Amino acid sequence: MSTPGTTALPDGGLKNPGAGLITLDPVHTALLRGLDDLLTGLAARLAAPEVTGPPLLSVDSLARLDFFRNFPHLGVSAGRFTPEALDGLAAGEEPGGLPLTPTGYLLPSATCYGLLLSLEGRDVGEGGLRLSAAGRCFRNETHYDGLRRLWGFHMREVLYLGTKQGAVEHLESGAGFVGELADRLGLALTRATADDPFYDKGGSRARLMALDPVKHEFSAPDGTAIASVNRHRNFFGERLGIRAGSHGPAYSACVAFGVERWVHAMILAHGTPEAALDRVRDAARTRPPA
Q1: What is the spatial distance between Cα 188 and Cα 92, in angstroms, rounded to a whole number?
Q2: Helix ranges (DSSP H) in 186-258
Q3: Where is the signal peptide (predicted)?
Q4: Which of 11, 28, 103, 229 could bridge across to 24 with cysteines, CB 3.0–4.6 Å?
Q5: Distance in angstroms (rounded) separating the CA atoms of residues 45 and 229
């Protein structure tokens, strides 16, 4: 029997197009969308309006944020065929052997970068600013592993910019939300300090992080990190000239969710995609008020 709201596929299902790439069937797609809808509950609770970030990020802008010093391996570059290659393409030549030229842009590796860059030079005011966004993110990895580690995936984030205390409260609210939603969904998660800050690993900020961690992850029983709370201090506020009124450079923080990883965790917890989807729909029907 097919799950309500989904359509059965022909025998053999859908073929995945390559390493780190996946096509979700109707049940997995319903599960992904249902989970993302539940994850927007944090934005509703914090009155964070939904925005849509840019699909590409400037290499020069990312360099100013130490992206390449911190994550030199992650960037997925956007290239275009050279003018010399166009005749070959039109003549039916194999595109894999034709030259590409860099565009100066990368595909996003996290949703918050585009939002932060769009606020460069702004004053978010004494009360601060919250934004929510979901986007496709892309990361080169040493290996890929089903829904646990993908080349392209969906990331939802709720971002805060404002005061130091506001950033702390934002992450406390985010961590509380993760715990509450996990309980409603029947997920057993553990919280631990992560080791991939936004800062140069050899610099003073990295040494400070060892004493005062800035990122914590929430992981499923098999070790898959499905959510994180990230305190950026005033790093982005200083680099991008974002102010919080009289408080000076804005502090920022974000709560991030890897949506495909939530799908993985739900199937791990409930045995089948169909059972996981039933649990998500039950949670949606009993969603608490924002």
Answers
A1: 53
A2: 204-211, 235-240
A3: none
A4: 28
A5: 16
DSSP string, 64-133: HTTHHHH-TTT-EEEEEE-HHHHHHHHTT--GGGS-EEEEEEEE-SSHHHHHHHHTTT-B--TT-EEEEE
Which domains occur in the chain, in start order?
A: 26-56+109-285 (3.30.930.10)
| 145: amino acid identity, one letter | D
How long is the chain? 290
Q: How far is CA 202 from CA 79, 93, 145, 214, 234, in A?
A: 31, 46, 29, 16, 19
* Cα→Cα distances 57→52, 119, 122, 189, 251, Å: 13, 14, 19, 32, 22
| Residue-level pLDDT, tens digit, the chain, 290 residues | 444 455 555 544 566 777 888 999 999 999 999 999 999 999 999 999 999 999 999 999 999 999 998 888 899 999 998 888 888 888 888 888 778 899 999 999 999 999 999 999 999 999 999 999 999 999 998 889 999 999 999 999 999 999 999 999 999 999 999 999 999 999 999 999 876 555 445 554 444 444 455 789 999 999 999 999 999 999 999 999 999 999 999 999 999 999 999 999 999 999 999 999 999 999 999 877 66
Whether 213 contacts 92, CB under 8 Å:
no
According to DSSP, the residues that pair with 132 across neighbouring strands are 50, 158
- Separation of first and last alpha carbons in the chain: 35
Query: Rounded to whole angstroms, how far apart are CA atoms 197 and 13?
Result: 39
**What is the number of other CB atoms lying within 10 angstroms of the CB of residue 200?**
12
